[in-house]
Design brief:
The structure is a homooctamer. In chain A, helix 6 links the parallel strand 5 and strand 6. In chain A, helix 6 crosses helix 11. The first copy, chain A, is built from 11 helices and 9 strands. With about 250 residues, chain A is an alpha/beta fold. Chain A folds into 2 domains: about 80 residues, no CATH class; about 130 residues, Rossmann fold (3-Layer(aba) Sandwich). Chains A, B, C, D, E, F, G, H: This is 1-(5-phosphoribosyl)-5-amino-4-imidazole-carboxyl ate carboxylase.
Chain lengths: ~250, ~250, ~250, ~250, ~250, ~250, ~250, ~250
């Protein structure tokens, strides 16, 4: 262990086993992570149940399988994102308890209970059914990170009354993830209705001047509703990760 | 008159005053507008009160003055658009009956009554106060073209309840012009609330990733509400012109 | 029925069956659409024959089939757009009266007579044969919405005399949809020839600097002919929907 | 008061003073905000000390003065953003207690104590001195919204050791706002060092291929560090507003 | 024939067989091309040997076959461009005299001698071997249009001495077509070496920041050598067509 | 003279005055232009009357004056382009025979007769009056290069009949320069009407989605009329230079 | 040999075997590379072991095989880049000593020892595992060009401590190639840590607003660390080629 | 001094003055730069004469003056870049030995001899006179960094023989900086002529489709000549900084 190595070094110095010059030299060349930046992973080590995350997109079925198998041995919970349905067979055979969500394109393996982050609720709102895969990725991720999650589907701005009919569920959220393609207007409307943080996720849904999500992205960045922040196009995972960091603030103090 | 000239030609031919070859040659070289495409200006001649339109933007105060003076002599109504306040003085001195709207940056000179197009109403809706100049240009233009005009200001999507509070005025319109900058989401919401044509006008209001109106333009082109059509950024005049063509359809038959 | 529910509530209050406080609470939490925004679908309920619309593009043959079958049971007319030829077989087997247009990629099922909107005519003009699929989608949609439709094909600006040869058909339209790719110049020319509303549809036809329809889109947004409005690239359906809203204005009063 | 009006209406109905039909009609046309969406401003009314915000950018000195004077009479705290130094004179003369920050280009008038949101701290980090105006706008805004604020200046990634030397201050924040222009890399580095939410603000600082902040914006949207969300270019105010919504979650429950 | 029809009409009028009113009406509704714009095809009719052109790209093998067969019956020469190798089999079977160029992806059927335009020579220069397909399309097209054609391959600017070694062939051209991808610099160098018209064709060759030919296109539009004009990306056909119009000017007078 | 120097060198070698090694060395280091590439300026030296060209744009009035004065002494004809009206005074005082065109922003000093290139005529066509400066720059340049020039103003595609009325002047041109902003559609229409080369010049006229001439540029690059080539935005000079190279081909043989 | 030919020519002239005029003519038409620009390949001829390079990307397996076989006969070392695994079989069968790197997609055939350039070391640093193919292409290329190469993988800025732990390897490099996708921030951090030249290679790794490497490219061009230069997206080969030119400067003088 | 502090700490530990636990704690919280990353500035301290660099662009004359005065007191050499002529007066008055270059817009104050880096030479090549300011900034910077510098002006690719006439000076350079706007083709040509590193600097010179240097930037990134690397638009300083890092490799070993 790093902290131990450092302690050993200092003890040796204290005991006169090495000289000040030797100690100086060793410290200068020690990997920096060993003596301070280790805080980065500090919380991670404390919190049990945080999943390992594997990006399935650019990997073969075999590669994903090997990685998951290797991680599974350590008893960790595992979340595979962007995993095409054609790659999931070996995983499901090997881990019958694993769950594959074909909409979210996620594979979840829960080997020990997910520790809840606290009392807050992450609400994932979705403008149209075509935006569903990204919304589901966000929802699955948020759950795997210990959040209570609620989902609201198909409440686009062109039928705004459908959104208003669920105003109570908007009111109950600690943080809202809004997923929308095309003109990306939904976060602006919701940002004006709630007083909690709103994370907007543009999707690549649309055609022509949608430019693969750019129109929605620009719409969200220019939102007239303050309090809205934005992640990359189709980045449901990133939105959920940020939402989880936010939601944890409202939970019981660590 | 062109039709007369053509008639004269044919009569001469019929009377043997000119030969077939001569007639053929004359017809071949006659300006095309004289014998068919003249329909273009047909309606214009029939409708009294249609204003002459002058684009003030790239012209000097002197140039605008000369053009307006020349037109005024023919007794026509005149609309000058995009006229900076620094160029209007000579016009107001010369035409004390003219009206300058500093928001719309329009100068209107009404010398004969504007003939109303019919019973329909053009509603101009405006997302924010910064979008007001473009909205006002649209409103002034629509009035000069003979439309009854209603205006709704500052009903952006981030405070969507302000829009709903005026639902009755949305209901009364024959055609709605929606002016919005930033994310340009308002036309989608309104397109879902009304069943009449909606013309969306993106404005260059905003900063950063608004890209001078591009974000709003893309938002409107990708509107999830069917029935929305779009004009160029800041083109209040064009929206009103198109709205007037539409509104005329609902009026008394010509 | 919503209005009925509201009436029941008020009647109960009036009859003293519930208290003012109870009424207040119930009203506060009632879905908003039930008490006001319901106007949205008001006209829809009045007009018989308006089709249900299904976007076939991102759905499997099975999904489309299920949706259409479900809708068909309610006796509605149905329009499926962007339906690839490889998905249409099950529909045609099940609904032998349905019509599939391989150019427009539309499937239409007419179960009760389409009620005509009125006397006006929607003219769909098409610059080149490559633009035909988008033009056909517009034409089919407009007909399903109750419009009389005329079509003019292959009258691009590089052979402008072909357009002029059909000037009479331009004259007869109430609203003109102009479909063009490449430089998208046709709406400007037509906008200068007619005095009715013109809806321009850029297509993704072209290569290189056509940028998938962006060149045509920009050309149309910058049209020097006033009265032209624009929809998204390849959005024949949207153009027809807007045209239908416009055309209805000229029909018999509802 | 709206709720009162509704109560009056129901009471009258209950008392038989108006009929069910009359009640139905009145409810149908009541502004919607009065009966449900009023929750929007609910929290605002509860929280004392929340400032009124005025965007100074596109307003004249006279307009800003009038608005501020009008608001000041109601005893509210006021924050004017994007206020050029040339417009601030009248405000400072009229409100000697007001403070103008020439870097942030903000004017703050605190008429009643700003109620602290809670124990959390918003840290504003700034890559270079040129990014300072945006960072200061964020800091001033966050303070006016009741947050405790810390600031870290000139810790760009090209001299990354300067950032590490202040690791303790990173550790103390509840939410971090990272302001950076040019390549916008700082949020990625900080996102990897902390476990709290990070809000990235691209600035228009740079030249050439910086494209007015687009390079920084894209860099931030593509951050390899999860948990980073982004606001519009130069939008220090928006970042602070979102940070405040987040920070409030960690404070004492309302 | 159109001119004949017009003559017949005038003769009938002259002979009193139809009245002036009837003549007026017929003239007004005659297709415009019949009485004046017919000049468009004037030269085409005079020049024998000008090929019919078919764009093969978006057509099936069957469609191309039908079109070519239909045209071939009229005895015309035929040029099919952008014809994939998988579509050419039926054509070659049916027309054994036809020639398919797999580089240019062109099919040529010469049924009557191509009439040479004159003494000038079109030189097609090509920066790299990857640009060859576009260069070959230009060369084949120019030959089919009656031009003498010379070709210079693989003389990119990074090995500029290879170009200078063929200076004599540059000197002999009447018009030069320069085909280049990547940075598109070759037209600038050649434009500085020759004193005849230079037509630049950007190609989509390249990767990354080549953006499918946009880098080359911009390079050519910004050429520091005057006298260079540009066509669309990969538009070898268009360059040859324009070059042929130019080359004809230097030939024997028609 | 270079050729002379080379001759002298070879003669000296032939006469044994220098050794082969010396000759080899001198040849290796001779400026390359001296021994072959000199053809570049060959034609220039032969043609009298070709003007010197000075780009006035980024130069001070003093700099322009000095350059012109220096050139004038050599008796050459001089063309200054993009010369603001505020810089022309000293030139007109010093060269009273010089002509300044405030539209074209050109200054021409003709000190010896401009030798005509031949019988052909360059026609400059201009879509709108705002495009006039660029069109005039093209016309003035073409004249200074020895071309006969005709000009056609304000014949935009939205009033296409105005163009047809001047069909005869289109017929007389050897090469047509078409100048247009906004949607840039005019070259397509003209390219379909004439059979001579067409050079399209996009202008930066327009606003919003005109993007400073990009919309017009894209429109022209995607022209559906073959035979159209394009130059940079606002590059009237370049279009005229290319047109002159083309027109020379049709003139008397050099 | 060219220099020999020139010598022969001059000797013949000196000996009176050819006249001055003949010598003049021959010199004028000699390929230019023969008499001066030959310096271009001068160094190439001196350095043994420099490989021939073949771009495999747009070539068939057969084409690549033929080219390599032809080159191999001349005994040269050969580097094939961007060679898909499906094309390598014939090469490996024919040249069993050749090595194919499936990550780098390179095939190397070393037939004679690669001459080392000198003492310096090229370090290839790679932000994430997805960037590995480009990094490997750079490493393989640099080795084939005679450079000593070190590689550092997966040291992205979001886990910056991993980079610092290898500070010693950064210190040992003469030139550093930094390969990164997404936000492309790594070159800025490394540019601030080392004092040797840094060449940044953006990769097309990422999705959404990564725009195929554009975000990384812009990030690198705007690097706040001076001394960083950039090559095209995914251009590992080009980076290595430039690095080799740099590294050679530090080696033994040629 | 940091290293001293560390030594003191270790000595105290060695002497038993502090415990191992205390030593551990202090080390963990020490600023990281103090114990390892200090290598960053190591070379800087060794090399005398390296100038301090001040970016003048966004600073007032007063701010620049204060910074320079403060630095000057420490006896360092100072380079101010992007300093408008209107800000230089106070500096020249205060430091009469300072030199202002109005082309480069640089102010140099040399207070102690600039130590030459070695024998190599940096060549700055410039396509046109408009590119001169950027080229001069590069040249001045390179000289201030201790490089011998040569400059070659106005050798654009449209007059390529002017470049070849100076081939000897290309041959003498250790590294070449190529500055070009418009199409940015010059680096490709030079990259093919020399065998040393080439750094390309796009400039914002040009108009229309030059897009403020983007066309040149893309041209350079897509250079067909390997060995070319690129910096940001107008970044003469950055190019010189990188060139200096390269040139140092060829100098005497430190």
């Amino acid at each position: 262990m790093n902290a131990n190595e450092l302690k050993t070094l200092l003890t040796a110095l204290s005991a006169g086993e090495i000289s000040v010059a030797e100690g100086l030299e060793k410290l200068r060349t020690l990997p920096f992570e060993d003596i301070g930046v280790a805080m980065i992973d500090h919380h991670r080590e404390l919190r049990q149940g945080v999943p390992e995350v594997v990006l399935g997109e650019s990997k073969s079925a075999g590669q994903v399988f090997s990685i998951v198998e290797c991680m599974a041995e350590r008893g960790r919970n595992i979340l595979v994102t962007r995993l095409g349905a054609d790659k999931v067979e070996p995983l499901l055979t090997r881990f019958p308890d694993g769950e594959y969500d074909p909409d979210a394109r996620t594979f979840c393996l829960v080997q020990k209970p997910i520790e809840p982050l606290g009392a807050g609720k992450v609400l994932v709102v979705c403008a149209g059914t075509s935006d569903l895969p990204v919304a589901r990725e966000a929802a699955v991720t948020a759950r795997m990170l210990g959040n209570e999650v609620d989902e609201l589907v198909d409440v686009g701005v062109a039928g705004i009354h459908r959104l208003f009919a669920r105003a109570d569920r908007l009111r109950e959220a600690t943080v809202v993830i809004v997923v929308a393609g095309m003109e990306g207007a939904l976060p602006s409307v919701i940002g004006g209705l709630v007083s909690v943080p709103v994370i907007a996720v543009p999707t690549s849904v649309g055609y022509g001047a949608a430019f693969g999500g750019v129109a929605a992205l620009l719409g969200m960045l220019n939102s007239c509703a303050s309090g809205v922040t934005v992640v990359n196009i189709d980045n449901g995972f990133g939105a959920a990760f940020a939402a989880s960091r936010i939601n944890r603030l409202g939970g019981p103090k660590p």
